[in-house]
Design goal:
Number of domains: 1
Structural class: alpha/beta
CATH class: Alpha Beta
Largest sheet: 7 strands, mixed
Bound molecules: adenosine-5'-triphosphate, magnesium ion
Strand content: 15-25%
CATH superfamily: P-loop containing nucleotide triphosphate hydrolases
Order of helices and strands: EHEHEEHHEEEH
Helix content: 25-40%
Strand order of the largest sheet: 1-7-6-2-5-4-3
């Protein structure tokens, strides 16, 4: 498991952005963390990293938003979901088999519907007001490789501008 700590929303967005270039059609990501943890903020970065130029807003009330970047992105939020049936009615099974990248806020709630080969991301509040701790659990080797590239990119992006080059 990989963990990264951020001190501002901008940093969480950068970490999302660093994963964007690694994503491929069919990738599934389940996001956890309490209300206001920063799940949507992280997805905004991820969308930017995928080349989405539209504004990414929370799909809490509509269940899903679709964006187009280098790949199709489905941003789902199951917080208000009452039954799995609602998701099935919306075409969730087709989404899973489609070439879209799917990111699901509160994904734990629908764990039985998700493939094992998924990335799980948890965001927790830290000790300070704007501190967050992001942890990444890769389901399978492909995710392990994507995460290691992501963390390299993220560390570069998060380094202070006047820091000496690493190594
Ligand atoms: N380090 C940080 N990372 C992310 N967000 C932060 C951070 N510090 C402060 N924030 C603020 O926390 C809030 C996170 O909101 P966001 O909508 O992303 O949460 P969420 O996890 O998607 O919540 P919900 O469960 O309601 O969908 C934003 O207002 C953001 O500016
Ligand atoms: Mg949200």
């Amino acid at each position: 498991m990989l963990s990264l700590v951020t001190q501002a929303a901008r940093e969480t967005r950068m970490i999302g952005e660093a994963l964007g270039p690694e994503l491929a059609p069919g990738d599934i990501i389940a996001l956890g963390g309490e209300l206001g943890a920063g799940k949507t903020v992280w997805v905004q970065g991820l969308a930017a990293g995928l080349g989405v130029s539209a504004t990414v807003t929370s799909p809490t009330f509509t269940l899903a938003h679709e964006y187009r970047g280098r790949h199709r992105l489905l941003h789902v939020d199951v917080y208000r979901l009452e039954t799995f049936g609602e998701l099935v009615d919306l075409g969730f099974e087709e989404w899973l088999e489609s070439d879209a990248i799917m990111v699901i806020e509160w994904g734990d709630a629908i764990r039985p519907l998700l493939p094992d080969r998924r990335l799980e991301v948890d965001i927790r509040l830290g000790h300070r007001l704007e501190e967050r701790s992001l942890s990444f659990r890769p389901g399978g080797r492909e995710w392990v490789a994507k995460l290691s590239r992501m963390s390299r990119t993220a560390k570069e992006l998060l380094a202070p501008p006047d820091a000496p080059p690493p190594g």
